[in-house]
Amino acid sequence: MTGRKLVLASNNAGKLAELQDMFGSLGVELIRQGELNIPEAPEPHRTFIENALAKARHAARLSGLPAMADDAGLCVDAFGGLPGVDTAYYCTQFGYAKSDANNVRALLEQLQGQANRRAAMVSTLVAVRSADDPEPLVASGRVAGLITEQPVGENGFGFDPVMYIPEFGQTFAQLSHEVKNANSHRGRAARAMLALMRERWYPDAAA
């Protein structure tokens, strides 16, 4: 049970802490790839799963350890699912500097007068035992909602202030940190990945 290490193909400290809490029950220690001097992998693909797989394989190849990566973004129904993998840089195609606030501004401008405001936040997690693992574990989390006319709420980041979740009657930015994390696309993907790892990689882990 001891000594299990899993490289997280991300250098986000917040993401590491959030995931470590969940995966600790498997006796797994998560290590950020930056701690192993692993550079970030290119993300040339057009789907979340391809980018996450590329990042996980890259980290596994350079570390010699199992690795896990995620790719996530906003999929807007009226835009055919875009911005998708380009979510973080969405506003730059409209001449704005990259920032959360400008992303929200650009999205609201592009949706002006649009009746269909359906959207989903999507997260895909991929884990591999090695760079050549023929059976990667794949887990997705999805939260469907509506894009509001104006930002509402002070919490969260990214598109949280305009992502209205009908089941809560609030935007993600109005929810507490704990409630959001428990119900976010990333939280749902992480729980699904935890179940897959428990079943396939670590069946001896305590329940």
What report would you give on this structure?
Pfam families: Ham1p_like (PF01725). Substrate binds at residues 10-15, 72, 157-160, 180, 185-186. Its cofactor is Mg(2+). 29% of the residues lie in helices and 23% in strands. The protein is an alpha/beta fold and 207 residues long. It has one domain: Maf protein (Alpha-Beta Complex). It has a 7-stranded mixed sheet. The protein is globular.
Characteristics:
globular, 29% helix, single chain, seven-stranded mixed beta sheet, alpha/beta
Helix/strand layout:
Blueprint: E1 4-8, H1 13-23, E2 28-32, H2 48-63, E3 67-76, H3 100-110, E4 118-128, E5 137-147, E6 163-165, E7 170-171, H4 177-183, H5 185-200
Parallel strand pairs: 1-2, 1-3
Antiparallel strand pairs: 3-4, 4-5, 5-6, 6-7
Quick structural summary:
29% of the residues lie in helices and 23% in strands. The chain is of the alpha/beta class and 207 residues long.
